[in-house]
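Hi everyone,

Forwarding the result from last night's run.
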Amino acid sequence: MSVTWTDVCAVSDLQPERAVPALVQGRQVAIVRLHDDTVHAVGQRDPYCDANVMSRGLVGSVTVEGREVPVIFSPMYKQAFDVR
């Protein structure tokens, strides 16, 4: 599987720990910049309620087996999704 990168915006346009929606090659995504300046994109659709709302969710972290994992919380049912 090959990976294709698509420029959407400058990293400086994104606020840390705030998700923003984007349309990339016809697909809705939520783009997240973490405090360490890494940028991740996840699907905009919440799989539990089938609504495109993930960019409205809170960005944070949870501890899994003693390690901090960056997540976005669904604004609908509050599930945490790993952004990596």
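DSSP finds no helices and eight strands in the chain.

Cheers,
N.
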